[in-house]
Amino acid sequence: MARFFLLTFFFALTHSMVFGQTARQPSTTADQPSRTVRGTGFLWREYYRKRVGVMMLKSGTGKLLEGHTSGNPAIIKAVQMMKAGRGQVALKILREVSAQSAVLDGRGAGEAGLLKDEAIYLIGLIYEGLGFYPEALGNYARISVRRDGGGVFYRKAMLRTAFVNLMKTVEGGDIALLEETSDRFYGVYRESSDPAEWEEALAGYAVTLYESGDHADAEDVFRKIDGYIYLHPAYGFSRAENYLRAGEIEKAKDAFQRLSAQYGEGGLLQYIFLRLGDIAVMEGKEKDGELFYKRLTEDVKETEDGKEKKTFASPLPGDAPVMGKMALSELYMNEKRAESVNILKDMMSMPLPSEVRDAALVYLVNLSRAEGLYRDTLAFSKEFLSRPGPGKAEVKAVLDDTLYLIISGAHERKDYTGVMEVYYGNREFIKDKRILFMAAESFLNAGLADEAAAIYGRLMNPQGGLVGRRGRQGRLDGWGDAGASIGLARCRIMKGDGAGAADALRAVRPSDRPGRLDSPQGGLVGRKEQALLADAFRLLGDLHLRKGEYGEALSAYSEALKGMDKPEIYLKKAHAHVLRGEEERAVDIYLDVIKRLSIKDGWSAVKDAATMGAKAFLGLGDAYYSMKRWKDSLDSYGRGIGGADADKEEKIRVRYRMGEANFFTGNVEEAVSAWQEVVKEDRDGYMGRLADERLKEVDLWQPYKQQANQPSTTASQPARM
Description:
Blueprint: H1 2-10, E1 18-19, E2 37-38, H2 43-66, H3 73-83, H4 87-104, H5 110-130, H6 133-144, H7 154-172, H8 175-191, H9 195-212, H10 215-224, H11 226-229, H12 233-246, H13 249-262, H14 266-282, H15 286-297, E3 300-302, E4 308-310, H16 319-331, H17 337-347, H18 354-370, H19 374-385, H20 392-412, H21 416-426, H22 433-445, H23 449-460, H24 480-494, H25 498-506, E5 517-518, E6 524-525, H26 527-546, H27 550-563, H28 567-579, H29 583-598, H30 609-626, H31 630-641, H32 648-664, H33 668-681, H34 686-708
Antiparallel strand pairs: 1-2, 3-4, 5-6
């Protein structure tokens, strides 16, 4: 697997790298990273390649300074000062030489003019070596106009201008500047008759071809100066890299080994170890590659007392262990995933270049996601997204998936507090509508209507930049706005705002087509969403019922029944008719519910059908009671109270009414029995006290009733009560 990671890099024809691709297709299971992340993973190698490349080019600049000979004592002294590290003194001397020569050479010709050019050329070299490119180019430009008069430094200045631009290109990746630089090198090659100059020009030209991805052409040019290349580490380094880019692994290996033998210390050697490790892994020799990578993290050097000390003196201080750790983390990414995670986490405490930190964070995002460490995934994703640079879309996709997994899991467990915690901790990153809907529903279920309403309002905002189930902007599968309106209505219902809830629901009323629903935007809504709408109308009906707004309650229940044919809604509707004084309409509904609950394969199959039937009989009893149809009321109450799973208060209320109905039909003993049971069950409650008063009334007139039933010896008898 690790071998494939590197192959995808080295066989790339451009500088765009690919992270996370394996021989298998990406999986969403926990056994490997769920997504590929483009443009991030191998850029840390590219970062070091550029640094080493520029370092090698600058080393050539230093060699030119050190090897410069002159017949002028002042210039010789300036070169000596430069070698001694006294650059400012050297610059002062060279400026004085240039100024004096300019006075002697008014027209720029002759010996004084050549001396002036020499001083300016050396000033340019000093600035070039220091990395002050504008100053270096400014000085070279002063020479480039001196084509006449035997100016021997003209082409040298052209070459150095091309090399400065090459270093800028390697650092910054300016393609237009790279093309201009390539043309400049080729121009010097064609114009120069000096073998040293045209060999240098050809070498620079080959490097520009390699940097632009023309690997075959670059090798053709390198081959023309084969004996010259390895005298200069910058060219040998570029040729070795070019072999890798072209996929010529054996040649790359030989080239890096040759460089190692010639330049066996410092930053170049560190980078060579990295590349030799890469090549070993590409050859399937993971153990050898591991040894090279570990060599970078554990390099040793003899100290004066003979003991070994872990160090790696380098022009790239501290980068050797970073390169080694990053390479090891890649090598372990599949078979030793936990070890890879530990290495990368340890690196997070180190001062890292941004390119390295970005790559490490992307690795940690994917590995944590694959290991099921979702909290770590969130933390590393957010850190990466807070940084400037590419790769945001891919990491954001991983973050979205992880947030969805965490929130959907908590939501399914009804852990609404857990949902809210994750939502508040990641609110700025959440734009997936699926997540927002679950968060809003969690707030609503937790009784936080205002917070839920804020999310539903965000979902209804077409400018919110929200992402649907398939990454699309706007509605979620055609019903996002409808679902948000329904949720907003539920929030308003919870706050007792019936009118506001009705406004929110008015936009998503169901059409006459069964099982479908038209949203205001023309999107068709399925049965699931229609059920949500119907349930919202049911809740609205309940609100109106509690507030005594029976007409509004009936309208809401009628809307609910268009999308939810459930017995409980019919029962609520019938109850509203009773409260409104429309008992006959209520009776019709109750009888229809009772009938449908008894039909096989009808409502008889619904959950709690027996309970629904009992509630229907109790409601029917209430309707008959209001109509003073006492016997029908008693019959309905009797059939409902035994089979109902009603709560205690409901049973007490029904028992009291059964007492009343029995009393009015003359069944005093049954009435007394019912009221006594109410007193027993609800002695301190309202119904208990009411029943107790009724029993006292019976006690008051009961003696007169008994006297009326005795034979009389007179013509007059007490009136029968």
